[in-house]
Every structure is written in structure tokens, then in C-alpha cells.
Specification:
CATH topology of the largest domain in chain A: Arc Repressor Mutant, subunit A
Strand order of the largest sheet of chain A: 1-3-2
Number of strands of chain A: 3
Number of helices of chain A: 7
Distance between the termini of chain A: 21 Å
CATH architecture of the largest domain in chain A: Orthogonal Bundle
CATH superfamily of the largest domain in chain A: Winged helix-like DNA-binding domain superfamily/Winged helix DNA-binding domain
Strand content of chain A: 5-15%
Structural class of chain A: mainly alpha
Largest sheet of chain A: 3 strands, antiparallel
Oligomer: homodimer
Amino acid sequence: MLQLRDLPNRETLEKFAARYPQADISAISAFLHLLRVATDLSVALDACLSRHGLLQGRWWVLILLMREDALQSTPSALAEKAGVTRATMTGLLDGLERDGLIARELDPQDRRSVSIRLTASGQQKLDEVMPDYYSRLRTCMAALDERDRQQLNDILNLINAGIRAFDQ
Amino acid sequence: MLQLRDLPNRETLEKFAARYPQADISAISAFLHLLRVATDLSVALDACLSRHGLLQGRWWVLILLMREDALQSTPSALAEKAGVTRATMTGLLDGLERDGLIARELDPQDRRSVSIRLTASGQQKLDEVMPDYYSRLRTCMAALDERDRQQLNDILNLINAGIRAFDQ
DNA sequence: AGATTATAGTTAGGTTGCTAATTAAGTCAA
DNA sequence: TTGACTTAATTAGCAACCTAACTATAATCT
């Protein structure tokens, strides 16, 4: 996401602002800081998951399946919810099937369709990963009290509404 | 980064929290919200850059070169600052050289070393992209006053300090 | 000097995302 | 009932990241 490690300091930002008067220095700083911390969180999460033989893409698939009452879904529905293309989902499911965490089953109703089921191994994997993830996340966020969390939430909503400035 | 589109609602979180008592629901919500907004920002930025024929990786290389007084650097230094491996930088530089935005020049001092220079085309590309980027970012963040920006900054620092909870 | 070690850059091969094209199956309207 | 459209999943090929291994050169240490 934001690979850049060498974030601009105030001096660099001012140098750029001198050439490009549209620059809003505190907006740029806030933006880069947000991307930097989010990226580091995501990388840390991946590192944590990879100790269990998973990565975010495949982990989310297992979670989405576990959310379903019947512990099953279809590649299309999973792709939609996971926010990846169906092509990407095919690849993720290939890996999960190879590891025995999910199973593909033909749908007798609609012969185009495949039913994806969380296997006992898959559930077991989640029962191993989720407590680790949840307790680390609890610790990570421990320094934020409820007011901080609410403020963060409000600010993120404001930024989110602004994202359409990048459209078109 | 966070591909997941179907974020868990309160009910789903509670269902998971019942099975995994380590779950801190407001921590999870804040975490996912942060990743969601940051990812959407990053995707929006990429979309904006791609209208100029760039993507984040290549764009940051141009910016890093522009920060240098002599408008030049080396692949190693750029890789370090951009937060990618030297192998990845080789690929990014290949693309930028192909498009004429940077030039590779041999260093007569150290024959292992290559000097990367921002070309006139590269500078021109930045002069076209940066005003667009800066004005969109200004608009995106316009709803946040200075107090919001400071609060965001403080909260991000707290989260950042907590990231080591995912280590080891 | 000669051997070892470190550094710069690239190449090779893997992963996970993408888009576009393809194959197969279901739907619907004239 | 057939032609056009839609939907499900996959395959193929591209981009940008990774690690590991390699080549060439420079620096360092007996």
C-alpha cells in the first residue's frame, strides 16, 4: 500500500509547496501518516497470520465461511464480500483446497455453481488463529480509550466522505 | 491491503466474540475501519495517478529523485527510501526508463554503481501530476480542521506504538 | 599481494493481485 | 425453440511485490 519509508519532513514539504501552491502541508502529513500506520498494521497482521500458514486473502475467506450459518458459500459470493475479483478468488480457493481448509462441492441445482465449504481442518485453523489475532489486536489498541476510538471513528468517516475528491 | 468489503457488523462481531473471548469489539471495529479507509485512499490515489500513466511505486521514485538537489540518486538508495527491495527497484526503474522519465548513467567512480537521473520528461510529468494530486488531497481533507488533524496524528502515534503487539 | 568479505545491481522464480477472454450453463422474449 | 443475454467459474497473461542466487567490483585484513 504505502511502501514509502522516507516520509517527507517539513522542509521537503515546504520545498514542494513552493513549487506547487496547491499543497496543503498538514493535509499531506495526515494523509501520509494514516497510510503509513495502516500499512504497518497490515504488514504486522500478515506476519502474524503467516506464522499460522495463512495470509490475509486466504484468512478472510475462512472467516467469511465461518460467518455463514451452513459454513458454506460460493466463489462469486466470497469474491464479492472479500472485495477481490472472481479470478483472484479462484486462486485463493485453489490454495485453501490444497491445504484441506475448504472443500469444493458441485451444486446439483445449478451446474455452473460450486459450493465452498469450510472443512473441520479449516475451522480448527481458525480456532487456532483467531484467539492469537484477537488478543494481539486487543493489546495493540489498549492505549486508546473509548473516547479515542470514537474520535478516530468520526475522523475516518470525514476522510472517507472526502475520498471522492479523487474520482473522475 | 484490506480487500475485505463486507466488514462485520455488531451482530457478527458478537457472534465471534462469544466463541473467542479475547475479542475486543471496539478495537476490532476501529482497526478494520482504519484499514478500510486507508485502503480506499490508496486505491483512489492509484486511480488518480493512473490517469497520468503512473502508479504509486513509480510515482514515488520520481518524487524521491525530485527531492534530491542534483535530481539524481542510485537504485540502492532509492530502494531503501521507497521501502522496496533492490530487485523491485530494478523493475520500477526499467519501466520508468522505458517511458523516458528517468535515465540510467554509469558511475565512473564506482563501476558497480549506476546513477539514476530524473529526465526533463520526468520533471514535466511531475509538474503535471503533483498539482492534480495536491489539489485533490486538499479537497479530500477539507472537512478536517487543525484540531481534527492533530487528534488523528496523536491517535495514529498511539496505534503505531501498539503495533509491536503483533511481533514475535 | 592474495584471500576474504561487503556492496551494487541484476536475474530467476514465486505470490497475489488485476483485466480480458473463454467455456459452460441458465434465462427470457419473440 | 432459438437467439440474445446474463451469470459462474476458470484460464491466460500482466504488474509489482518478494526472496534467493548470481556477477562484478570494491574494500579490508592478514
